[in-house]
Structures are given as C-alpha cells and as structure tokens.
Design a protein that fits this description.
The protein is of the alpha+beta class and 159 residues long. The strands form three sheets. Strands 1-6-8-2 form a four-stranded mixed β-sheet, sandwiched between helices. Strands 7-5-9-10 form a four-stranded antiparallel β-sheet, with no helix packed on it. The protein has one domain: Molybdopterin biosynthesis MoaE subunit (Aldehyde Oxidoreductase, domain 3, Alpha-Beta Complex).
Amino acid sequence: MMQVRITDQPIDPAAETVALTRGRSDVGALVAFSGICRDSEDSGKITSLTLEHYPGMAEAEISRHIEEAKARWPLLGARIVHRVGRIVPGEVIVFAACTSKHRMAAFEAAEFLMDFLKTRAPFWKKVESAGAENWVEAKEKDDNAAARWERGAKRKAAE
C-alpha cells in the first residue's frame, strides 16, 4: 500500500504505522521516521513553524518519488503524512515509513524519501521566533544528502 496524505491535523505515528502494516504477514521490516518541530535552531528559539504547500502538486510530487523508491527497492508499502499550517514545538511535522521483506530496502527507501521531502517537495516553511518571522531557505547539507541519490541513479544507469 502506497499512500500520501497532507493534513492540517496532528499526526499520530503509532496509528500510521498500524495502518501501514494491518493485515500484512509478508512484511519483514518497517522503517518509520517522524520529524518533530523542535524549539530551537541556529538562529534562536522557535515559537512555531508555518508550512504551506501547493495542493495537488505536493501530493503528485511525493507520489512520484514513492514510485521512484518502489523502482529502486522492493517495497511492500510506503506512507507519507505531512503537516501544513501552524505547528508548535513538540508536534510531528512529517511521518514517513517504508515496508519491505528485508530491512536494508526499508531503511534506504525511507532515507531516500526523507531526503526528497527535505529538499525538493513543494513545501514552504516559515519560522517564528522572538517576534520575527523568516522563510527557511534550503540548506547545503540537505542538498548534498539528496544529491547522493542522483549520483546513485546515474551510476546504476551506467552499469
């Protein structure tokens, strides 16, 4: 089962995990990641994040990357749930999980999907701290993490 959901409601990682594995006896590995809003960043204390997205386009792009993950790894399932709207420290921003018969495929696919979400998914994040608001720019370390998957795809195609 492959599913993408964008919501302005709180995310329950335990419920999402159960939904992904319910009735499945062929799953040998489940790797799940929950991104949580923290209260500080290099620039100081965070009071909230506001995430915006391009409805329809965001779901389509995430689904496309899930399909790419399925082509790279033998996945049995993938589930991504992403919050939008105002999020305060301690709340889950994103839940991403992959299932497979074996752990390595689930680990790598989950990491691939999170690297995409962090760098290329059509979301915009504004950080509010100490009365100031700033839109967050992409970070070089995140771009470098995502670039390794592109190098891997090019290497595989050349083989």
